[in-house]
Amino acid sequence: MEFRGYELREWEKADRIRPGRRAMSGLGLSWCRRATKFVMLFVVLALVSGLEKSAAKPQADADDKAAAQRGRKQFEQSCGFCHGADATGARGPDLVRSPLVAHDVKGNQIGPVIREGRPDKGMPAMPVSDAQILDVAAFLHARAAEALRSSSVPKEYPVERLLTGSAEAGKAFFNGAGGCNKCHSASGDLAGIAGKHSPIDLEARMLYPKGKHATAVVTLPSGEQVQGEVKHADDFVIGLRDASGWYRSFQRDRVKVQLQDPLAAHRELLEKLTQADVHNLFAYLETLK
Questions:
Q1: Measured distance CA(205)–CA(281) in Å, rounded
Q2: What is the spatial distance between Cα 22 and Cα 188, in angstroms, rounded to a whole number?
Q3: How far apart are CA 155 and CA 216, in angstroms?
Q4: Residue 282's CB: how many other CB atoms inside 10 A?
Q5: Is 56 inside any structural domain?
């Protein structure tokens, strides 16, 4: 039987040309094209939205800064007498670290307090506009953010702020009452130490030395001894990692424990140091360059 009037459709031609591949129907091809267009449109919209946000951010930052500046003036005039011009407190509480300010969003917590006051605590009600509330809230949030940023100690800290002691008195303490020279030497392990660390890092290492770990020798009832670096220790359990790398723990009332802590002297001395001793000792170490 012949089918002279039958004509191959495009997708069938493609299947004849590339045998073995599954041909896509006209309906499937149409759906694929629509899906591709949708994805491309989504990508374009995402890019445009990102560009708009990037362009809007500097303007938003500028607006927030302007609002905070207006809020500062308003706060100084109306609130500074009790809370301090910088909001850190005076007769009234510190608002920079206030939980109410921390939970506030665009004046929703601060506004009612300002408008209604707190008569029981001596704070009068103040008739202010919504715009003024937003400005004062912007100022308090800016102060809180500033305080949060400044709470960390910078890596570069002026040595002048730390050098408040006497190097001579520190040297005398090092070689005398402090007993530091029993384990350390200015010409030995501490030679040039001030040139190896920043001032603030040097003071931290002086007070809280690192790098040495306590070890322990645990004697079992059988007489066997286990030695290693202490990983846990309390009044009931001692845990250590032995030479083979295994973690082992023992009940302290069933074994004999000998602790060997190379920093024990440091810890004991730390409890006895006065503020003057700390400043003097640091001033002496800072001369070892």
A1: 12
A2: 80
A3: 36
A4: 22
A5: no
Q: What does pTM read for this prediction?
A: 0.41
Beta strands in the chain (DSSP E): 215-219, 225-233, 237-242, 247-251, 256-260
Please check whether residues 201 and 250 belong to one and the same domain.
no
Residues pairing with 248 in the sheet: 240
Same domain assignment for residues 176 and 140: no
Determine, yes or no, domain membership for 47: no
The answer on 180 and 141 residing in a single domain is no
Domains: count for the chain? 3
**Closest alpha carbon to 221 in 197, 188, 191, 257:** 257
Could you tell me which residues come within 8 angstroms of residue 233 by beta carbon, excluding any fewer than 6 positions away?
Answer: 214, 216, 239, 259
pLDDT one-digit tens code per residue, 143-177: 888 877 765 555 555 666 667 889 999 999 999 99
Q: Within a 10 A sphere around the Cβ of 87, how many other Cβ atoms?
A: 27
pLDDT tens for 261-284 read 888 888 788 778 888 898 899 999
Condensed to tens digits (0 to 9), the pLDDT of residues 178-197 reads 999 988 899 998 999 998 98
146 & 226 share domain: no
Q: Which domain holds residue 123?
A: 61-150
Same domain, 72 and 181: no
Rounded Cα–Cα distance for residues 130 and 109 (Å): 13
Tokens coding 185 = 């030497």
Shared-domain flag, residues 203 and 238:
no
